[in-house]
User: Fold these one by one.
Assistant:
Number 1:
Amino acid sequence: MNNSLAVVLIASGVAYGTPLLFASLGELLAERSGVLNLGVEGMMLVGAVMGFWTVERVHATTAFTLVLALLIAALAGAVMAAILAFLVVTLRANQIVSGLALTIFAGAAGLSSYLGNNLNLADRPARHSFQAFLPNSMQNWPIVGPILFGQNALVYFSWVCVVVIALYLSRTRLGLNLRAVGESPAAADTMGINVTRYRYVHVLVGGAFAGLGGATITLAITPQWVSGITEGAGWIAIALVIFAFWRPELCLVGAYFFGALQALAPQLQARNISLGPTVLWANALPYLMTIAVLVVVSSGTTRRRLGAPAALGVAYVREEH
Amino acid sequence: MMRRKTALAVLLAAVFALVWASVGSGSTTGNKAKPYKVAWIYVGPHNDGGWSQAHNAGRLYVQKMLGSKVQTTYKENIAVGSQFNQTVASLAAQGYKMIFATSYGYVTKSIAKKYPQIKFEQATGTLVTKNVSEYFGRAEDTIFLSGMAAGAAAKAANCKTIGFVVAYAIPEVIRHTNAFTLGAQRTDPGAKVKIVWTNSWFAPAKEKQAAESLHAAGACVLGQNVDSPATGQYAESVHIPWVGYDSDSAKFAPKSWLTASVYNWGPYYLKRVKAAMNGTWHSGFYYGTINDGFTKLAPYGPGVTAKTKQLIAKYEKKIENGSFYEFTGPLYDQSGKLRVKKGVKMQVLKGGTNSLYGMNWLVKGVIGSPKG
Amino acid sequence: MRPRLPVTIEQRLRRPRWLAVAVPVGSVIFAFLVAALVLVATGHGPVSTYRQLFDAAFVEKGSLDQTLIAATPLAFTGLAAAAAFRMKLYNIGAEGQMYMGAITGAAVGLYLGGRGGPSPFVIAAMVVAGGVGGMAWGLIPGILRAFFRTSEILTSLLLNYVAGLFLTYLIFDSESYWRQTKGFNATVFPTGKPLPPSAIWPGLSFNLQGGIVFPLGAGLAVLVAVLLWFLYSRTRFGFEAQVLGDSPRAARYAGIRVRRKILAVMAFSGAIAGLGGASQVGDFSHALDGDPNGLQLRGYGYTGIVVAALGRYNPFAVVVIAFLIGGLQNAGAALQGPSFPSGLVGVIQGIILFAALGGELLTRYRIRIHLRGGRRVSGRVPEAA
């Protein structure tokens, strides 16, 4: 039963969706503050390479090593995000172009590749990596075994993050202020909320999460480093935030759904099930569904839009006289 | 105010021009004898732990053996098509006289005609002209041997299914899959090889997903014809044996590692560069063998029994002295039809779909579609 | 009381002319200085590296040829982005629109082409087909924006992926019309069907640097730039589009048909990108390139957006900058090798882009520095009263 297609797909979806989940949570925070971060892919790649580097440098194979690697990956992502934040929040540069420039700077033909090659990180297995750690007996329980108990610590940590962020957005003062910043920065400003500070903090935290997402790939999913190892996950994360109506709990559902779709084609092949051009529609489906969601969300019969922060993508300038 | 600004601008420009002119372009050096410039072009990163890295090892071998007489360089991540053409153009402008193009489809008739002063050597292709030579080799022999190791492991585990992660549904990969299967069937008669296509030479995440899906579908041993060791890392995590490809990747899966077919490009590269340098270079079609060091088996892992090692050694010797060739008939395809008659040996280029380079059918025992 | 920052940023009331030139130049110089630091830190001499870059882009034999090849698609996608961004319609879909234009252009070329030299009829048909393909793909986000108020940023971005998957499917996963199925080589690796000789776009040969070819696509791009300039600065359509970009409300009060404008601009922008796709097929690859590591990895659509931004959406500036960035890309590829890690090229390109983008601020805003004691000192030269 645990080898049935459905169970395997869901378990795969959880595992492969985790980097998407981290990255999309980060993107969600940035977008809620009104900044469209198109540099996610670059931030993920830098986090991936720096997390891997940490594990290679620290020879001990303890849990501490992995935690340190995650911290450094998050820090690396945040540093990249700081560049973006400086450009779009302080210098009021166009957000789209700045994000793209950051992807060029940090991406597979840029900084992340440079660091990985110079630090000799290619062609070696990670000295230490995240593995499933719960007892085998639990992992073999029917259905919930592989799906819930067969995952590694990063997956469980991502669940904690989802809960924390959901509570932050809906229950705390800061989170509610964030809503105002994203919907109408001018109004938030008159209320005394420091728009600049909120944007900076959330873009930086967003970058940190993107870094974590990248580290998930090099430390858990395929514990090795090669240039461009995220293979477009950052862009999928941007789509995922939209698909999830800018809500963290839906990011989780969406990430696992996208992850499962990625695993669908090989699973069907291995079982000799042919459903036509599986690769094409399985890969295209997430994007098409996201577009459909977007249309529904933005053309609601009531004028109130259900998700997108109204000031997303617009630089805020306080008028001074 | 404006005048001061313009003066400043003019001064800056003058300083700039002075510095610029004083620095040479840096590409010419005053050496006594100009080194022979040879370039390698890779389809992936030079340190991918697989195909391109093996070529790079060959390049470094040439550089080591010929020292200052050659100047070698590489360009990585070059796609087939206009990117390749651009790369060749810039190499030509820098005076490179020989280019090793390490992927199918790189060298076209038109690009070869455009640069008659450059000797092109292409891997895995078929085009041969005055200045284009082709090279590849009988990796299928060592892949067959590595398949024997996989079959032995499957027999010991008493399951009849081996999973094989493959890239593109092209004759090269199909022939390698067939060789692997024939080898596995020697040590585990009746073994089945299930395949999953990733549609990429190098894609760690996709390869791991393919490995997972094969394992979930019943495979107890894994093998591959793709370039990253992701399959092996997965095999190690679920404690099943693994046969690699392209390079000795035992470090990625110390316990699961069985062996792999490995390319050794160095000797061929050295031979050809030397020939080009002393004017004896002719274009042709080189198909290397175990005998001339083109391919060999990587060192065994702990899971290969002494008995299996002996058996593999026996077959290797037979291949080397010509008394055994895995692609000798009778060979049946997946539907049971006889494709190659008894005693007939398949040729490299001749024979249409019954040639090594034209093979588009899978042998009996492979489960999966040859169309990708 | 929140502490007052010593620096405030005020919007300029007037933009001096010289600033429009000085700032981009200044920021590029600044970028080169920062990049020089990076180069020194990584053990490369900055001036010699820059010299090598320059030579590889413009001076060496055959370099202009390669620079033109790199610049042509960037000119198209840059113009496509400029056409839309000027109206604050953020079409990020040039990438996918280019793929679609390549598909339709290749289809027409394969169907109508035959023997003999390049045929003006076939090529014109390819141009039109490419434009139509891109236009259709660009109209999807356009329609969604005009009628459903869906953000075109997100829809056009998502459609890029769908277009890419479809492009790969046509060559790798199906026996489509575009795929080469005859001949021995077709079985060895999936490739696109080569265009018949009369569908191959000619170029203008110059006896420079040992013979360079000015691709037809490059010429078309310049034409498009002229057209775009004319459209936006000399026609009523352009004027209305500008108004719409600056203030949608004002445009509505003025009776400008907003929906029609959105559709028209997205269609036009998509068509330009599609034309770039047809140029890729007709000028350079001579077959449909469905390899995921080929056209789809070059990122012309996204780089074009950056080119457009650097050119402040002025069509002629966009073409010039496309040429310069094309040179930089070409030089980076030429420089790449064992002694010059490929990552470094992206780093330098990124720094240049950052500096140019950051410089944007200085044209629109003025920085005022407040000294202690109440005396205000302006951070820029005071403008003449």
Note: The domain at 139-262+296-367 of chain B is CATH 3.40.50.2300 (Rossmann fold).
Number 2:
Amino acid sequence: MIAVGERAPDFSLPDHEGNEVSLADFRGSKLVLVFYPLDFSPVCSDQLSVYQEVLPQIDEAGATLVGISVDSSWAHRAFRDKLGLGMPLLADFEPKGEVTRAYGAYLDGAGHGNRSLVLIDQEGVVRWVYESPTPLEIPGANLIFDALVNAA
Amino acid sequence: MRRILDPHGHKPASPELTSAGVPPVDGEDHVRGEGPEAIVYLDLACPYCAATWVRLDGLKLRVVFRHFPVASKHPRAPALHAAVEAAALQAGEAAFWALVNSIYRDQGKVDDPHLWERARALELDLERFEEERRSEAVAERVRRDFESGIRAGVAATPAGFLDGRLVAGDLASELALVTSPRNENEKF
């Protein structure tokens, strides 16, 4: 997993609408990257649904939350629609998992990312990371708020 | 792009959602039964919660019910949680538990006319029920529980706490380990 204090690896990925989104687009605001295994899986559905409920508070805290998985833009779009999600979802689809690997969140052998959170500050520096012990464990949204208060 | 937490369009909740222990039981909580105390955070529109609720019914537990509606996944959840609070305001805890049971036992009928039907079955004043389930006080009461759950690390439903600690694994199975079967006459 990428370490606190490192410069966040740049990326340019299509979002759920197929629009390219880069790390540089978030310069000047705090960014919470949510690496999750797969669209439509039960645990990922729970995780992103609960994060959705606190998006207004994350916004109030001056941060933007963005999801990343190895699914395609089309899958992301359907997943967002199904769950009523408002956060952007980025498709680390081709080359598969390249950005997830750059952040050290890829699970070799599983074919997808581990459930991980990365807080990047306004200057593009990693300020906090969380890696779930297993993909089945969901980090509570409280940990994101702790990080926003204490680490950035 | 963003949804508002409160479906009735009231102001969003406080940004203070940093980690905190699960709040101990207080006078505003809905508490039912005797035995080891389990604080449970449930979504009334969640099928897993419904299945868990049926299994909890057979356990000798002191159940503390806390609201955890996940509106994005279950769009009717906020309305259902507001409805059970309105039932409690009007007719007390018996009406609260009766409506919780009613909703969990038939999750296919959760639109407004179904709620009116359920309210009539409980002999509630329908006009008052309608007014109170849409009130700011009820929204605040539901939000209080939701936020305490977020701060305590609830990340999915159903979730439960024993002695202040989040229960890992299948909730009903874990709670069954700390209790014994209830007397049939004590069913919720």
Note: Strands of chain A lie at 12-14, 20-22, 30-35, 63-69, 89-91, 106-107, 112-113, 116-120, 126-131.
